[in-house]
Design brief:
11% strand; 13 helices; seven-stranded antiparallel sheet; Hypothetical protein af1432; disordered C terminus; four-stranded antiparallel sheet; alpha+beta
Length: 432
């Protein structure tokens, strides 16, 4: 073990004491750094769950116990020894367990990344006034980390997360940032514009910090005076952006995030031609998330209803190109939608790939399978089954509601469009 340069090994060859490098973005793995010495079996297991074909490691930095390699190889050989006595039923059970494990690992990774993003956002807002330049640096790093994952993937799907995925106060800002960046990718924006878009989206509501807590959200009972005070958060946001020394482009995004294409927005009541392309994206995504995640959850509408409203009642507030691209990306049935399938079963949409928007991935209500064992099914590969209609959660039978657990607040993140979840569609036999 005297070589002075890294080598590549398979995940199956990992051993405690190896010093390894992860050639991937910070949000693509559960470890705090990209290079470290393996010290526990838990670390090794997490690495194997990443789905990597090979891992880089440095022999000269490793401290592998004498004889550990041989023992490990012998153990793996024993564990991986093929069996010929298993019945087709046993093999099917084993396959299902493997798919379920992959599914859970993928979801946990997305939720960890979302949680990390919301925590970092909360931290930067805590230091906005005391350390504005450090807050700007933190915002830039956070967006760059998101972009690293989004732009490196050929296809990125939008993934629904659990309600407890991250910091509640940061939910809206992170949602708007992620969805805006994904929309920017669909619109093929230049990389430099994507960074500006992300920073503007992340900090679009930063001015609300200057408002009393009770006035940071509007509702039907808000008085004209309260509405006027609420609208002042845009000016406050611009002032904070100047203190952060944000670029003119990012500053403009904060100034225009409540402007509409028909001139009915505020504070400037400017029309769509005077709005930047990036501002139009944030304005649209901001409205969508506010419809799905209002301050009072009793007033929330489903993602499907939100899209419908944006396309009908509020169509004039968005330019056609941005709205069309957004609907295509989110799908007719965005993640979080409750639907009834063509075979009458109920399902929850959990992931949408913009390349195939009418064929999302769903969890299906099946009383014969425990909720925790339910597989995500890719409707793209189910030729006999489609979506018949969208439902409000209240329209579900109680058993289906309890099983599917529709989210009261929606958290979104991105995942690989070709992640292990899609493997469920290739299982032999009838759809579970």
């Amino acid at each position: 073990m005297t070589e002075s340069h890294p080598q590549f090994i398979s995940p199956a060859e990992l051993q405690i004491g190896m010093y390894i490098y992860l050639d991937m973005g910070w949000m693509e793995h559960p470890f705090p750094v990209n290079s470290f010495e393996l010290r526990t079996q838990e670390q090794i297991q997490k690495l194997r769950e990443l789905g990597l074909q090979k891992i880089r490691y440095a022999p000269e930095k490793s401290h592998i116990a004498v004889g550990a390699g041989e023992a490990s190889q012998a153990k793996n050989a024993h564990l991986e020894k093929p069996t010929t006595s298993e019945s087709p039923e046993e093999l099917a059970i084993k396959q299902r367990r493997a798919l379920l494990h992959q599914q859970q690992a993928s979801l946990m990774q997305s939720e960890r990344q979302f949680g990390q993003a919301t925590q970092e956002f909360k931290h930067l807002t805590d230091i906005v006034h005391a350390q504005p330049l450090l807050a700007r640096e933190s915002a830039t790093k956070l967006v760059q980390g998101m972009l690293e994952g989004i732009l490196n993937e050929e296809e990125s799907a939008i993934r629904l997360l659990s309600e407890k995925a991250g910091e509640k106060t940061a939910l809206h800002s992170v949602n708007v940032t992620l969805i805006s960046l994904l929309l920017g990718k669909v619109l093929e924006l230049p990389k430099e514009d994507m960074l500006e878009l992300g920073i503007g989206a992340l900090l679009h509501d930063v001015g609300k910090m200057e408002l009393p807590d009770r006035l940071r959200w509007l509702d039907e009972q808000s008085s004209p005076a309260e509405r006027q005070l609420y609208q002042s958060h845009v000016a406050h946001g611009v002032n904070i952006a100047r203190k952060l020394q944000l670029s003119p482009h990012a500053l403009l995004l904060i100034a225009q995030h409540h402007e509409f294409a028909d001139g009915s927005g505020y504070p400037g009541h400017i029309s769509g031609e005077k709005m930047t392309v990036l501002s139009r994206i944030i304005s649209l995504v901001n409205r969508f998330d506010n419809l799905c995640n209002p301050s009072n959850v009793a007033h929330a509408i489903t993602p499907h209803e939100a899209l419908s409203q944006l396309f009908t009642k509020s169509k004039s507030q968005s330019d056609t190109q941005t709205l069309t691209a957004f609907i295509k990306m989110m799908g007719i049935y965005p993640p979080g939608s409750v639907v009834q399938l063509s075979d009458e079963r109920y399902a929850l949409v959990v992931s949408v790939n913009s390349a195939r928007p009418i064929k999302p991935k769903v969890i299906i209500h099946d009383p014969a399978i425990p909720r925790e064992d339910a597989l995500v099914i890719n409707l793209e590969h189910e030729t006999q089954i489609g979506i018949r209609r969208s439902l409000k959660p209240i329209q579900l039978p109680k058993a289906a509601y309890d099983y599917l657990s529709p989210r009261k607040r929606l958290c979104y993140f991105f995942e690989r469009a070709t992640d292990p979840l899609s493997l469920a569609s290739h299982m032999k036999g009838p759809l579970p």
